[in-house]
Amino acid sequence: MAECPVCSGDVELEEDTVVGELLSCPDCGSELEVLEVDPAALGEAPETEEDWGE
Amino acid sequence: MTSVSIVGGSGYTGGELLRILLFHPDCSVKQVTSERFAGKFVHNTHPNLRKSTRLKFCTISELEPCDVLFLCLPHGQSMDRIDDFRKLAPKIIDSSADFRLKSTSLYERYYGREHGRTDLLERFVYGLPERHRESIRSAELVASPGCNATATILALSPLHRRDLIETAVVEVKAGSSEGGNAASDASHHPERSGAVRSYKPTGHRHVAEMIQELPGPAIHFSATSIEMVRGILATCHVFLKEDVSEKDVWKIYREDYSDEPFIRIVKERSGIYRYPEPKLLAGTNYCDIGFERESGSDRLVVISAIDNLMKGAAGQSVQSFNLMLGIDETTGLEFPGLHPI
Lengths: 54, 341
Hints:
The complex is a heterodimer.
Chain A lengths: L1 E2 L6 E2 L10 E3 L6 E7 L2 E5 L10
Chain B lengths: L1 E6 L4 H10 L5 E7 L8 H4 L11 E2 L9 E4 L5 H12 L2 E4 L9 H8 L12 E3 L2 H9 L3 E3 L3 H15 L3 E10 L14 H4 L4 E4 L6 H7 L4 E8 L6 E9 L5 H12 L5 E3 L21 E7 L5 E8 L7 H12 L16
Parallel strand pairs in B: 1-2, 1-4, 2-3, 4-5, 5-7, 6-7, 8-10, 12-13
Antiparallel strand pairs in B: 8-11, 9-10, 11-14, 13-14
């Protein structure tokens, strides 16, 4: 179990979760990146930036 | 099996009560009254109930004893006949405003008349399970809250409990079914359609319930009727006494509502429905609550949504009924709503 950095909700991690994996918080829906697995730590995943045709 | 009857069953709340109670596993609907439609099938008035029941409306004078009476009469009528009703049933759930308020002065101020049965005010429990669950369980008499009051009180209660509200400004957008099923010039389709009508910028009667349940801070309330049949969206601008972070607000609402079967915190960072949306709650007993903390100010916006005929009326009454019976609070109220709708 890890804490969502946005809303402090509980985010469950599967046993085979690896660093860099992307998860969603079940409470606030934030896209989260697994920073560490033992102990578990999550960060906000960088948002995909759109290319406006430059 | 608990026998129930509905008094004043031709209105929208009565129709919703029937829709729920006809399929409730622990009760049987014995009688439904309507002075206007006595002798007619209830499905003539509530066409969604075709083939669900062959019940006909009867008059109040034809009522027989039962275990629980649901009163869905216009304001003022329950108190006038309450003694007759109490002779018919040991437990009563009243959907009108007659017994919601404990203070007679508050009642007189907001309803513009003297209360006729002040002796019973303390005996009625305000039927908002999230605040008065234990009292409802042992109650014989329950007064079901008003719809706008329900949406507002549930939105603000966790902050009020922690003395965080300096003042609150609440704007409700409401569907037309709040006005009941009686037609008027204002509800005539060419007039009503497309209108965004400020029907109570100040002085709404439900404010009395907010004052009773959330005493202390000033709550300024306005209601606007919009192009919607069912539903309420309450946008509560809360000006805080002290600085709290958005994470603190999450914690506060989780502490109070995580175990509540009909309250959901809705605040998502992606998707189409990121905050409470009344459309998704049509026919359900949920109250969805979301919030956003404004950075650089003392404002917290709390948003709540309900179906005014369900969590704001019939559904909430059945929730109290379940508590009074000592059965699972969610019985008969499991419908999750429709999507898309």
